[in-house]
């Protein structure tokens, strides 16, 4: 299958501060496939989502590289067909508190599908039911503060579905939720993927979430993708020492595993004072002299497995 989304050598910067937030990232995604983006806080996961969705915040610009979306909508619909929808980490602050849930969904349906009046209302109720919110008719009159975090997250997913996206970007969709809600949202995303065949880009700190939903994963550090692999391979045989360290941080539920999760020493450097060479070298147990001189080019670990490291763990 050909790629639906192709990102090539994408550089995103803050010109006023002369820093690169994304530094030459490349990846691709087929329709129906799920890519998981992982990495510590501040490594550029959200900015990657915003760049793909053409929603970069003010003052942040795409300096070079490309984001190509394959034109796969039916003839005659292509020009206006919305293709990408995004759901955000914090649903409650992403919804406008002065609008009812019904208004929010109906206006999206009007914008994306041209529906009005009772057509829009009926479709909005159908979407609410689709994402598991019962008594949709009365819920349409509710405001976001009258919903729980999990319900608001579902409303955001319903809003995204109103756009009939071919790519759904979910930035930490379960982080603000308790484990029961998390499980329900993950199940819903799995169902929607199977039903619609859309591509999914999911960001999560939780490698368990990535393992459950993603086909392949990309690990980010300081605005670069430092390892990409099929998700099972990445979790079992991470090659980059940083990816390995992230996997080692995962708590185990095996009662016989008495090893506590090992934290990664140090912290992510600031973008305006990045260490030279491989940016991970001050924290890396495998670092050698060459690591602080030049950034390593991606090394092939397996057929679709690459890691940017001079001394990959698998080697
Ligand atoms: N508006 C902004 N202006 C300047 N720098 C920004 C802005 N927004 C984010 N950044 C910087 O861009 C980098 C990447 O941020 P991003 O939000 O993509 O990180 P993230 O990986 O999503 O982190 P988290 O896991 O905490 O959500 C960070 O160093 C952040 O400080
Ligand atoms: S290039 Fe060197 S410092 Fe960077 S991750 Fe690999 S071994 Fe560690
Ligand atoms: Mg983020």
Describe what is shown at a glance.
The chain has 315 residues and is an alpha/beta fold. It contains ten helices and eleven strands. The protein has an eight-stranded mixed beta sheet with strand order 5-6-7-3-8-9-11-10, with helices on both faces. A three-stranded antiparallel beta sheet has the order 2-1-4, covered by helices on one side.
State the main characteristics.
315 residues; 2 domains; three-stranded antiparallel sheet; binds iron/sulfur cluster; Rossmann fold; binds magnesium ion; binds adenosine-5'-triphosphate; 11 strands; alpha/beta
What topology does this entry show?
Layout: E1 3-14, E2 19-30, E3 34-38, H1 45-52, E4 61-69, E5 84-87, H2 91-94, H3 101-113, H4 117-130, H5 136-139, H6 149-162, E6 167-171, H7 179-196, E7 199-203, H8 207-213, E8 216-221, E9 224-230, H9 231-236, H10 241-248, E10 299-302, E11 305-307
Parallel strand pairs: 3-7, 3-8, 5-6, 6-7
Antiparallel strand pairs: 1-2, 1-4, 8-9, 9-11, 10-11
Helix pairs in contact: 3-4, 3-6, 4-6
Adenosine-5'-triphosphate binds next to helix 1.
